[in-house]
Design brief:
The protein has 439 residues and is mainly β. It has helices spanning 3-18, 28-32, 128-131, 157-160, 164-167, 237-243; strands at residues 60-66, 72-77, 83-87, 91-95, 112-114, 119-124, 133-140, 148-150, 174-182, 189-197, 203-205, 210-215, 245-251, 272-277, 282-285, 292-296, 303-308, 353-355, 361-366, 379-383, 388-395, 398-405, 413-418, 424-428, 431-437. Strands 1-25-24-23 form a 4-stranded antiparallel β-sheet, with no helix packed on it. The chain is globular.
Length: 439
């Protein structure tokens, strides 16, 4: 490969990271730097490459509500019909149904934007109509540092080549989840209170009243690179329990639930609910089971869907259906395994589904409405690199069919929400969109 081609491909990689693809050098990077040249063997039939549905989806009417957003990441549908949208650059805005976009809301805490770290999910409290409470997550600058947008290298290249001792003294920033009150005039956040630290991707309100928060692998805090390690990593499992991509579980006041799985182990952070993820950017409760499902970005290959259970290990950085990034290697090797080189391991949960090559999965929605009657009970995933809305047909916990929608629009789908009328709303590179059945 010539030096010119290498330069162009690395530039494409950096551009995508700045567009907030993933937390740990996005899965997107793999395709711009030489994608996976092999197909890993699934652990069970139907774990990947599901066939198309026997009946394709109906034609879809797509309405663009606004295309005037900057790096939109998440949205909440307000009871008054407006949309509260987060932009990863650190701003929140109100979008009216007629497409009018507000000025940035006041009162949003300072955000450090670097690589794919920034302002992310926002979720309304179930009592929002009465209490105006909401939850959101973001990457906070370290003490004494002003909010700013930093070059990507300050989170990757200037970190992973340092010794672990140096990394542990580097003040890079803090992943946070907070609660606030939206003012009655929709113009500001009030009474902001940090409830948890260590994760800042997705927030899910559980049926039992607790809150799940997903967070990306914090490779900087242990002896790892952002695309894994090239050795066995099983000698000290508490490292993964504390620093790999995790699901946190807290009560709505920030306290720790008394049935969290690791409370009897002093060397594991009490909010840890599950671990061994890489970058879980999509999360939702399966209404049929009450269980938390997440999407997780692999490195070069190996994007997956996981069903989260308390105290379980989902493998990173020991095992993966993906491999390390070819573009990083100086020795010319390709498809270098992650960790011990296995795709499965005793004590590690298998993903319910995986993709090779990657689609870069983000938002997740279990559709429960009647507007699209054919879709009721289906699972939807936003695909960034796949530039599609991915429809998955379920049979219990198994995925039995896959269909990719809106491919002709070539847009990176970041978030998915269901409206009270059964319409589906998307945040994407095209802005905020509304999907309804075509008449």
């Amino acid at each position: 490969m010539t030096s010119l081609i290498k330069t162009l491909k690395f530039a494409a990689f950096v551009t995508i990271m700045l567009a907030s693809a993933h937390a740990q050098a996005p899965a997107t990077a793999g395709r711009y730097a030489g994608d996976v040249g092999r197909k890993p063997k699934p652990a069970f039939a139907g774990q990947t490459d599901a066939p198309p549905p026997s009946k394709p989806s109906p034609q879809i009417a797509v309405e663009i509500i606004t295309a005037r957003l900057t790096t939109p990441w998440s949205m909440a549908l307000l009871p008054d019909g407006n949309f509260l949208v987060t932009e990863s650059i650190g701003t929140m805005r109100i979008v009216r149904p007629d497409g009018v976009v507000s000025a940035p809301l006041a009162g949003v805490p300072g955000v450090k934007v670097v690589a794919a770290q920034g302002l992310h999910d926002v979720v309304l409290d179930p009592g929002f109509a009465q209490n105006r409470l909401l939850y959101f997550c973001y990457f906070a600058p370290p003490p004494g540092e002003e909010p700013a947008i930093w070059p990507t290298e300050f989170f990757y290249q200037r970190v992973w080549n340092k010794s672990l001792a140096e990394r542990r003294t580097m003040a890079i920033g803090v992943e946070r989840m907070a609660r606030a009150r939206l003012s009655k005039d929709n113009k500001s956040l009030e009474d902001v209170e940090v409830l948890a630290e260590g994760a800042e991707r997705r927030i899910v309100l559980a049926p039992d009243g607790t809150i799940y928060i997903t967070g990306a692998d914090r490779f900087r805090l242990y002896d790892s690179k952002y695309d894994g390690v090239e050795h066995d990593f099983t000698d000290n499992p508490d490292i993964g329990r504390n620093f790999s991509g995790r699901v946190l579980r807290i009560n709505r006041d920030g306290s720790i639930p008394k049935d969290n799985p690791w409370l009897s182990r002093a060397t594991v952070l009490p909010e840890t609910f599950a671990h061994g993820l890489r970058d879980p950017e999509g999360a939702a409760i399966n209404p049929a089971t009450g269980e938390l499902w997440v999407t997780d970005h692999g490195p070069q290959g190996g994007d997956e869907i996981d069903i989260i259970k308390p105290g379980r290990n989902y493998g990173w950085p020991d095992v993966s259906y993906g491999v390390q990034y070819d573009f990083q290697r100086t020795d010319g090797r390709k498809n270098v395994p992650v960790g011990n080189g296995a795709t499965s391991m005793p004590g590690v949960e298998e993903p319910a589904y995986f993709w090779v090559p990657d689609i870069a999965p983000s938002g997740m929605l279990f559709y429960t409405g009647d507007r699209f009657s054919e879709w009721k009970g289906n699972l939807f995933i936003g695909a960034l690199e796949g530039q599609a809305l991915v429809r998955l047909v379920l049979n219990g916990d198994r995925i039995v069919a896959e269909e990719r929608l809106l491919l002709d629009r070539k847009m990176r789908v970041r978030d998915i929400r269901q409206g009270p009328d059964g319409a589906i709303y998307l945040l994407s590179s095209a802005g905020l969109l509304r999907l309804t059945p075509k008449p």
